[in-house]
Design goal:
Elements: E1 2-3, E2 24-27, E3 34-37, H1 41-44, E4 45-57, E5 64-76, E6 80-84, H2 91-98, E7 106-111, E8 114-115, H3 121-125, E9 131-134, H4 138-141, H5 148-159, H6 164-177, H7 194-207, E10 212-216, H8 224-241, E11 244-249, H9 252-258, E12 261-266, E13 269-275, H10 276-281, H11 286-295, H12 333-337, E14 343-345, E15 349-351
Parallel strand pairs: 6-11, 6-12, 9-10, 10-11
Antiparallel strand pairs: 1-3, 2-3, 4-5, 4-7, 7-8, 12-13, 13-15, 14-15
Helix pairs in contact: 5-6, 5-7, 6-7, 7-8
The protein binds adenosine-5'-diphosphate (ADP) and magnesium ion (MG).
Length: about 350
Amino acid sequence: MVGWRPSPRRYGRFPGPTLAAGWTPVKLAESGGIGYRRPAMAETALLTVDNLTKRFRAPLSGDTIFAVNGVSFSLGVGETVGLVGESGSGKSTIGRAIARLLTPSEGAVVFAGEDIARWSTAQCRTLRDKIQIVFQNPWGALNPRMRIGRLIEEPLKLHSGLDGGARRQRVEALADRVRLSREALDRFPHELSGGQLQRVCIARAIATKPRLIILDEPTSSLDLSVRADILDLLAELQRETGAAMLFISHDLETVRFISHRVLVLYLGRIVEMGPSQRVFERPAHPYTRALLSARLPVSGRRGDRVRLEGEIPSPLNLPKGCVFASRCPIAIADCLQRSPGLDPIGADSAAACFRLGVV
Ligand code: ADP
Ligand code: MG
């Protein structure tokens, strides 16, 4: 498999994550550029999600909500994968199922060689230091009555076995690491800005040296001006710690800066996956194309624009055929009858569409 490092020129001031140990540079025959070959998945997969399915029961009606429907992918050691999709497509449910904050209805979640999908609550407690999750809303994630220093110390108390003095030293080191002033450690959450609070959440997440960090829209609630700094910090931490990251966002541009690979989700199904560069430069699925063209300025490449028509179907009634057919500009009758599987495109990509190659 060939992964790509985003070029600094294309991605502006973002450095792009350096690829982790085991990746080797290769000369690409096609473009003459340099790509990066990832070691075989079997050697390096930290996480393998297989046929992950989650159904909820609607609280009032009792109807079944099909939130996640047969999702499969792997995440390599030290790899950052972006999970993109509109609101309600099942992104947070996937993140929570992997961190085992909820139990999948079906499927396997193999983390570091063990299927944790059916683990008991007690077993899942042993995962807390290995898989961390950072949420969209830092205000809701932090106890408002605790000072910042204690909030950062909390995971160390639970998981590190360090004594009080060593813990305090580590809290200060963590604050420095996420570029939070030492003075902030004595403050309460309401005295800090959203960006500073998200730094606190990130410090808590890296405190236990997790192997996997799930970031669920970590910059979506922040002012535009601080988003870039937080993304920069995350890319830097990924490089330094070698932790794998699942970066969830409804915003493709955000994911582009930070991810080696991208998964595109629609109505609880992956419709496209592949290396970031390929997905952004040559999106294969009409939904990915629509998402990307929605970002283009009106004066942009108008000929390429694909508009999303109609409403996203309800997760209460999954369509019989392709999940995207009701909004797809190139759907044919067959697309309403049969559901396309995720078929490989080249060596490192896949898309679920009967109409690949049709513009
Ligand atoms: P996203 O993060 O992509 O916005 P979610 O994973 O939060 O999507 O939600 C996917 C679908 O599952 C939505 O239709 C949502 O309403 C539903 N859902 C999520 N959590 C629950 C829950 N605890 N109970 C019932 N329905 C839920
Ligand atoms: Mg969400």
